Amino acid sequence: xxxxxxxxxxxxxxxxxxxxxxxxxxxxxxxxxxxxxxxxxxxxxxxxxxxxxxxxxxxxxxxxxxxxxxxxxxxxxxxxxxxxxxxxxxxxxxxxxxxxxxxxxxxxxxxxxxxxxxxxxxxxxxxxxxxxxxxxxxxxxxxxxxxxxxxxxxxxxxxxxxxxxxxxxxxxxxxxxxxxxxxxxxxxxxxxxxxxxxxxxxxxxxxxxxxxxxxxxxxxxxxxxxxxxxxxxxxxxxxxxxxxxxxxxxxxxxxxxxxxxxxxxx
Length: 266
Prior knowledge:
Elements: E1 8-13, E2 34-39, H1 43-52, H2 61-69, E3 72-76, E4 81-83, E5 91-97, E6 100-105, E7 111-117, E8 122-123, E9 137-140, E10 144-150, H3 151-158, H4 162-185, H5 190-205, E11 208-209, H6 213-220, H7 224-236, E12 240-243, E13 246-249, H8 252-259
Parallel strand pairs: 1-2
Antiparallel strand pairs: 1-3, 3-10, 4-9, 5-8, 5-10, 6-7, 6-9, 11-13, 12-13
């Protein structure tokens, strides 16, 4: 599928739906064409996805069955918008394949990339009870497969499930700490922001980061040209190596030093 085209296929899972009730369909809510279809998604695959996720695995058996009964499978083309910022948060998702970026936009249309969601990670779960809306826009970065669940099924189990409460509290605290760190990041000069973003991506991907300089620029809140200039200078210093679509960290110590403002200007 060529870049810039949008495609979304949504399959409502019938294997656990009562025969007396029609399968529930989910509005696509994206910019491109979509096909909503009913199919028999493999029960084992959805069970494996739920069991392998550290949050969903904490659900009690009955709640897990209810969550799975309301699931949908989504196949998305690159650039497909999954949901928009400030729209009602009625569902959340787990990535099966591909990547999803969470992004917000300024009043002038400038994009700020908040996070990248990888396989087996959740996104879109909003837990406050008063008219919950999505805090950012979710977009497929490449061909992506998702399982989508009803938010209400997770919330119902949360009320009387201490292990789940503990897991979500820890996850929320971690994201809050990251948000505070990101807030302070915008006070730094571009070279420090780029270095800190690379350190964060190293924690997510490891030594080889399969992301473009355009993605680095979005995460660091700078231009693509600036991201290219800084990464080239880091490469000349032997801290990293760049190639099409990826960055390889050669000296994590050197990169951390740059992230703390050390070393010569870039």
